[in-house]
């Protein structure tokens, strides 16, 4: 599967990526459907973020509880949800967010992961049945991740960079004693992709360039642990391990070798035979199986919205789901006995809610109501997929949110949103930040500029070593599309984005200073020279691919300087807001400090919001509220011009 070289970590994706759900396929010549204008109740940021974000759907061994992480307390904490009643029991209470891995297969111990203050040095922890907690991967500089249980649950696997900060080695952990045994010392910069349930086979991947990767099989029963290449190919293509079959006879991997989009193939370990397994008109995002293999769950990234399919492998048929509210399935999981399925439903106007379904029954049970009870769902906005032509005729897709109060007689200001990456994608789904701004009368157009994932490998690579140039032109032509809409105030269009989108925001103000009226840079790169020379050590395995995408700082430093907004900040003449996490390991605080100082020296209004307890994204609800309040006040002042300039 083609991998986006993302600068946005999981917390950033949860907190600042623009998402939604319902979609259509309108072309540039098809206007957004006119909706009867009506007044809507406006809600403050706190009300929007009183909405609960929830993730995870691991069943307890008996199937009577589901393990989730919820931010209802203000940070993500672990909870058990009773399948019958929906009641929740809190399991963790840290100052930093905790994210669920899963229950142990044979008892109610829980594995989870967390970092410290957003530093991205995630550790793997176990919560014992008595509530005590043990860090299984200690060390201030350690970064670790969970890699899977064996089928009988007696052992599990973790990866850790404890030996060498640049490489993730593989270890086996005894489920009773927590004794750690080295399995594979990674000296070649490979990544663990999947482990067979019998513990014998390890699927590894290697990023060769941003267009090309390989998959290897390591047989741990052999005396010499040498990864065997199984993805021989002549032209650049991506090969990525997905999962093993439950009988440990097949590896499922994704590849774009056969066309524009990623599809899934299976590799028979005994014979070395490759066979097609799953193909669609879009990228196949994932494939997985229930415990016995009875059910296959797969997802397709169809025009910025993931379509999940659950198939009965005994009949080959898609299972018939009960009638459900509008939305897209996410996070599907089965209980050990495969009688119960847990899943989420998410849409533009509804955050993810957890459901359980007794397979074959006529009704699913909703266990959560995550939208704030103070919000009328009818006041929220559904997105529309639109397309427009860029400067060279290339068709560019985007996700458009039109305020309900907008009309040709009540034109509204608008914002271009730019996603993270490079290589990310703005997708449909609920976003409290986005709905807050739309609710207050700002249209949002999330442009998937060239270089975005999800639209084929040719489109994905169109921005290689052209960052801040052709992709920036796509953003400007997205603005022109907004100006063609009779309900948009053509003179009041701003730009904002997170991570790579923050870079694009600053680049737009520095290199095209008359295009946008304001900009909001959220955790954005502004000095590529520094960023590419200070990447975290654990990025070593895909650093070559990153340099293939962005350019090697040893040879492309002049170009990096030319596209870095910091070195051209004297061109910035429009109001700028900068959001920064003090613990960000990707975009160092000094970058934002320097940009803010340079823009202030121009006499240009600049607002700087620094969060001492965040990294590259938001993990704490109170900070998301503070940031959203800051966005709205800034936009009301400088885009809507409701108030006088702030001192």
TrEMBL record:
Pfam families: Peptidase_S9. Residues 431-640 form the Peptidase S9 prolyl oligopeptidase catalytic domain. Keywords: Hydrolase, Signal. It comes from the Bacteria. GO terms for molecular function: peptidase activity. Residues 1-19 form the signal peptide. InterPro entries: 6-blade_b-propeller_TolB-like (IPR011042), AB_hydrolase_fold (IPR029058), Peptidase_S9_cat (IPR001375), Peptidase_S9A (IPR002470), WD40/YVTN_repeat-like_dom_sf (IPR015943). This is Peptidase S9. It comes from Pseudoalteromonas tetraodonis.
């Amino acid at each position: 599967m083609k991998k986006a070289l993302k600068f946005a970590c999981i917390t950033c994706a949860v907190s600042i990526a623009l998402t939604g759900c319902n979609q259509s396929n309108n072309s540039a010549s098809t206007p957004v459907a006119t909706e009867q204008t009506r007044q809507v109740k406006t809600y403050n940021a706190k009300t929007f973020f009183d909405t609960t974000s929830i993730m995870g759907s691991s069943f307890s061994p008996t199937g009577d509880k589901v393990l989730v992480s919820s931010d209802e307390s203000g940070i993500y904490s672990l909870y058990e949800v009773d399948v019958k009643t929906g009641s929740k029991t809190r399991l963790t209470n840290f100052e930093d967010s905790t994210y669920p891995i899963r229950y142990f297969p044979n008892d109610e111990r829980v594995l989870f992961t967390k970092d410290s203050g957003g530093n991205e040095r995630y550790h793997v922890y176990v919560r014992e049945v008595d509530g005590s907690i043990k860090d299984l991967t200690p060390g201030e500089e350690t970064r670790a991740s969970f890699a899977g249980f064996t089928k009988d649950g007696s052992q599990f696997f973790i990866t850790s960079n404890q030996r060498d900060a640049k490489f993730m080695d593989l270890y086996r952990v005894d489920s009773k004693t927590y004794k750690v045994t080295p399995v594979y010392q990674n000296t070649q910069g490979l990544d663990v992709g999947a482990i067979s349930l019998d513990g014998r086979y390890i699927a590894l991947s290697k990023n060769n360039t941003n267009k090309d990767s390989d998959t290897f099989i390591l047989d741990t029963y052999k005396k010499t642990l040498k990864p065997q290449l199984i993805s021989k190919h002549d032209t650049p293509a991506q090969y990525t391990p997905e999962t093993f079959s439950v009988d440990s006879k097949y590896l499922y991997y994704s590849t774009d070798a056969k066309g524009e989009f990623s599809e899934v193939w299976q590799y028979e370990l005994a014979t070395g035979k490759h066979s097609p397994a799953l193909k669609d008109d879009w990228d196949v995002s994932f494939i997985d199986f229930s415990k016995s293999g009875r059910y296959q769950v797969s997802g397709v990234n169809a025009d910025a919205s993931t379509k999940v399919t659950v198939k009965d492998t005994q009949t080959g048929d898609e299972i018939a789901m009960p009638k459900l509210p509008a939305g897209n399935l996410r996070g599907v999981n089965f209980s050990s006995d495969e009688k119960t399925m847990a899943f989420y439903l998410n849409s533009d106007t509804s955050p993810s809610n957890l459901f359980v379904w007794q397979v074959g029954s006529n009704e699913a049970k909703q266990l959560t109501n995550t939208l704030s009870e103070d919000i009328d769902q009818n006041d929220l906005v559904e997105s529309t997929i639109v397309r427009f032509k860029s400067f060279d005729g290339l068709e560019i897709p985007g996700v458009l949110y039109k305020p309900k109060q907008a009309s040709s007689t009540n034109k509204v200001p608008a914002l271009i949103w730019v996603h993270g990456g490079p290589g990310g994608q703005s997708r449909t789904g609920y976003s409290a930040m986005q709905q807050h701004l739309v609710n207050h009368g700002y249209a949002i157009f999330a442009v998937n500029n060239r270089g975005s994932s999800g639209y084929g490998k040719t489109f994905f690579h169109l921005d290689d070593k052209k960052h801040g140039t052709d992709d920036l032109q796509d953003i400007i032509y997205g603005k022109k599309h907004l100006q063609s809409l009779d309900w948009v105030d053509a003179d009041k269009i701003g730009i904002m984005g997170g991570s790579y989108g923050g870079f694009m925001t600053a680049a737009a103000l520095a290199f095209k200073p008359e295009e946008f009226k304001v900009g909001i840079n959220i955790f954005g790169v502004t000095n590529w020279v520094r960023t590419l020379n200070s990447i975290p050590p654990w990025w070593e395995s895909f650093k070559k691919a990153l340099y293939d995408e962005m350019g090697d700082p040893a040879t492309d430093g002049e170009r990096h300087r030319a596209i870095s907004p910091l070195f051209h900040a004297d061109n910035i003449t429009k109001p700028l807001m900068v959001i920064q996490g003090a613990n960000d390991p990707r975009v160092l605080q000094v970058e934002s400090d320097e940009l803010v100082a340079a823009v202030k020296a121009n006499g240009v209004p600049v607002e700087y919001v620094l969060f001492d307890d965040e990294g590259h994204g938001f993990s704490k609800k109170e900070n998301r509220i503070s940031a959203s309040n800051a966005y709205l006040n800034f936009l009301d002042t400088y885009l809507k011009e409701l108030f006088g300039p702030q001192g």
